[in-house]
Predict the structure of Glycosyltransferase family 4 protein.
Amino acid sequence: MKKVLLVTTVSGFVPQFQMHNVNILQKMGYEVHYAANYNIPSYGNDNNRLDGTGIVRHQIDFARSPYTKQTIIAYKQLKQLMKKNRFDLIHCHTPMGGALARLAAKNTNTKPVIYSVHGFHFYKGAPIQNFLIYQTMEKYFAHYTDVLITTNHEDYQAAQKFKMKENGKVYFVPGVGIEVEKFKNLTLDKRKLRKNLGISEETIILLSVGEVIKRKNHETVIKAMEKLKRTDIVYLICGQGELEEKLKNLTDELGLQNKVKFLGYQEATPYYHMANIFLHPSYREGLSRALMEAMAVGLPIICSKIRGNVDLVDNKGGRLIEVEEIDEYAKAILELSNNPKLRNNMSTYNLEKINQFDISNIDLMMEKIYKKSFD
C-alpha cells in the first residue's frame, strides 16, 4: 500500500483540524502515517482521538522552539523515518514541523512535499524580527516545497513572491472548513446550560474559544469588562493554557470574579449556542476555525482587525477592533449588548456568509490538490 506522512509539531493538530484530509487520503487508497511529538498533545490532555482512525503513529521529539538541540534530534528522527518507509507524499503543518519535514524530505529525496501554512509568523503589524527570522526561513524552505497551501488572502499574496521548487505551486484554500449544518441544527436546552453555570436568562453572554495563551489576547477583553461596570454581562473563556493562572489573578485584581468564568478545555459547541456575542481578540490568526464555528451558530462577532479575521468578518456581521484597543472593545460590547435587533441582523448575515467555508467545499479543493500532487 502506498503511504503518506503527515507531520506536525504537536500531536493534537491532526485530530483537531485534519481528519477530513486523513479521510480523503484513506479513500484514495493511501496508508496515513503521522509524525509528531505525542508527549505534548495540545487540544486536550491525551492522544485518544487518534485511536481507531487507522493512522500509524511515529514519535518525533519536536520542541516548540528552534533554539534547542532537540531540533537536531527531531530532524535526524524524521530523516530516519523517511529513509525507512519511502513515503509517496509528505504533508506537513506548523512552522517547526514544516521546516524540518521539508529539510528531511530534501535530504532523503522524498517527494512530493505539501506544506500547509496556517498563518505565517510574519504579517502586517508583526515585530521586525518576525520578518528577519520567519520570512527568511519560509523563503528558504519554499525551494524544497512542491505545493504551498495558504488559508487567507494576506498569506497567499506573500507566498506568491517565494521562489518555489521547480514546477511548485501556491494554492489558496480558505481554512480547514467546518460542518456548517452540524452547528446550525444542534438542539440544546439553553436554560439548563445557563442554570448550570449560574447565569440568568437576562444576562448577556460573551464567549471566547481558544488556548489561554498570549496570542489569543483574552487579557484585552478582561480589561474591557472592567470598564463596562455592568452586572448583566458575563465573559466565558473555553480553553486552557499557560496564562490561565495569570488571567485568573488579573480577574481577581479587577474584581471580576463573577463576570469572567474560565471553563477549561471543553467541547465548545454548547457554549456557542448559549452565548449572545462571540469575542475573538487574537494578535495573530491564519483563518480561525473557532471564528467560523461561531458564525455557523449565528453569533455576532467582535474580533481583532487582523489577517484571517478580515477574511471572515465585516461590518455587517460584527465589529473589527485594533488588537489592544481596550476602550473600543468595551464600546463594541456595549453597542451589541444594547441592541438585540443589530445582533439579529448580524446573525442572519453570518449564517449566510459562512456557507462558503463549509467543509464540503474545502474537501473538494484538497482532493484536487492531492490528485494533482500524485500525478
Q: What stands out?
A: The two ends are 17 Å apart (CA to CA). The first strand starts at residue 3 and ends at 10.
